[in-house]
Write a structure and sequence with these properties.
Layout (H helix, E strand, L loop, with lengths): L2 H13 L22 E7 L18 H8 L2 E3 L2 E2 L5 H10 L22 H7 L3 E6 L13 E3 L9 H6 L7 E6 L31 H30 L6 E7 L14 H4 L4 E3 L8 E3 L3 E2 L3 H8 L14 H5 L9 E5 L8 E5 L3 E6 L10 H4 L2 H11 L18 E5 L17 H17 L24
Helix pairs in contact: 2-6, 6-11
């Protein structure tokens, strides 16, 4: 790292009031060996942005995430770069869009030549550890000093990782849950959520089977919430709360039809929370657009380190100081192979969502585990009986539109495609140009030989290869 770049980054962060206070006996403005913040990243697995109490769900039990929002900042317009598990994680730690990480498809390991922000922190003196779900391949392990496993929830080793860290170094903990990923089982929590209390979105049928499925999903969300609470309590017990920036988000939407893997808000919008007492005002809400590709440059900036030239994202540190600030006008996302062949790209502003589909001859099939779910099989049955609602056919449409445009302020569930509406012709042209510019800048291409389906689209069972 160049010393000049380090000092410039440090001075800018200090000027914003986002770096920790100087310790006793250390003169203000002295850059040598400055104290640096700790970072804890909490990642849910398959949690929708609005399935948290503080994000508007009226009956789900998430008291600890609600506490985190009350003690920090809640982001209402935070987005993922894809709605797929491992590609999201690889995108976050590299600060790059999935198609540029070498791990754009589900289960692809992150290549060894990728620059990752935990490794940059480690090289600068940070202790780095991960606990819980991994899902990034073996080469990515070199960026961490220690890696712990996990149990059914993924959070079982989180406290151990926090307690066994060295006390003489700043640290980064990457704490990844397996909740609320399928499969679901009853009696995950006591008492369980009641099906009659579930919120059924309009793109799913309001059927008893769907409500039961949603209730089991919410049980795992609450189990995850309990592990988050233990981390918050342990940070406070250790007396490092004002020196520790804690971030929470999910890797994609709920594992239900028209959610996980899809580019609607139900797939790529994420419940981002940041708690940092003394640095982030409690109970603040930020409506500015943020992408998880911005996490890497943000964390390095707060650590007083320059961003890597390989990063695609931009730091949203200004928003932590002033939630009314603006750091980007658009967010971008992609849908690549995840159990099924796919290639979709999207550009989103505060007002518009534009989606381009390279394979409109393929249906929008949900992931294989969601295909096997009671919800999807109920939708198949209701469709066969002619009883599926007007907005609930998305997964079965053939051919799909090659372009979709949604006025998300008027149509928050993206149910009405206005791409062919003359009133939106100028908006369509503008969003086309925005996406084309992003494709060019990030060197995105449609694969010449797409990965084929590996599961049956009706049953979710593996295909013979």
């Amino acid at each position: 790292m160049h010393r000049r770049a380090f000092l410039q980054a440090l001075g800018a962060a200090a000027g914003m009031g986002l770096l920790p206070r100087l310790g006793p006996g250390r003169a203000a403005g002295v850059a040598a060996n400055p104290p640096r913040p700790n970072f804890i990243i909490l990642i849910a697995d398959d949690l929708a942005w609005n399935d948290v109490g503080c994000f508007g769900h009226p009956t789900i039990r998430t008291p600890h995430l609600d506490r985190m929002a009350a003690e920090g900042m809640r982001f209402t317009s935070a987005f993922l770069t894809t709605a797929s598990c491992s590609p999201t994680r690889c995108s976050v730690i590299t600060g790059r869009y999935p198609h540029a990480t070498g791990a754009a498809e589900l289960h692809q390991p992150l290549p060894a030549d990728q620059v990752a922000f935990p490794g940059l922190l480690r090289e600068s003196g940070y202790y780095t550890a991960a606990a819980g779900k991994w899902h990034m391949g073996d080469d990515a392990r070199r960026h961490f000093d220690r890696i712990y496993g996990g149990g059914p929830s993924g959070g079982e080793q989180w406290l151990r990782a926090l307690r066994e860290r060295p006390n003489d170094r700043p640290f980064l903990l990457w704490l990844a849950a397996s909740d609320p990923h399928r499969p679901y089982r009853p009696d995950t929590i006591d008492p369980p959520h009641r099906p009659e209390d579930m919120v059924v979105p309009p793109f799913l049928p309001d059927a008893p089977e769907v409500r039961r499925d949603l209730a089991l999903y919410c049980d795992e969300v609450s189990r995850l919430d309990a592990f988050v609470g233990r981390v918050l309590d342990e940070v406070d017990r250790q007396g490092i709360d004002q020196d520790t920036c804690i971030l929470f988000f999910s890797d994609n939407g709920r594992p239900f039809p028209r959610c996980k893997t899809r580019l609607y808000d139900s797939g790529v919008k994420t419940p981002l929370l940041v708690r940092w007492p003394g640095r982030v005002e409690p109970g603040t809400v930020c409506d500015g657009l943020v992408s998880v590709v911005d996490l890497a440059p943000t964390i390095l900036y707060l650590a007083g380190l320059p961003a890597s030239e390989t990063f695609h994202g931009v730091s949203f540190a200004p928003l932590l100081r002033d939630p009314a600030a603006t750091t980007r006008e658009y967010v971008f996302a992609e849908h690549n192979w995840h159990d099924y062949q796919a290639h979709e790209r999207s550009a989103r502003s505060k007002d518009l969502l534009y989606i381009r589909n390279a394979f409109p001859h393929l249906p929008g099939t949900p992931p294989a585990d969601a295909v096997r779910s009671e919800t999807f099989q109920t939708m198949r049955r209701l469709r066969g009986e002619g009883r599926l609602g007007a907005h609930q056919h998305d997964c079965f449409i053939l051919p799909r539109p090659a372009e979709e445009l949604y006025d998300v302020n008027k149509d928050p569930y993206s149910l009405h495609n206005v791409a062919e509406d003359p009133a939106y012709a100028d908006a369509l042209g503008h969003m086309r140009a925005v996406l084309e510019d992003w494709i060019r800048r990030t060197d995105d291409r449609i694969p010449a030989t797409p990965t084929p389906d590996r599961f049956d689209r009706a049953t979710g069972q593996p295909l013979q290869r």
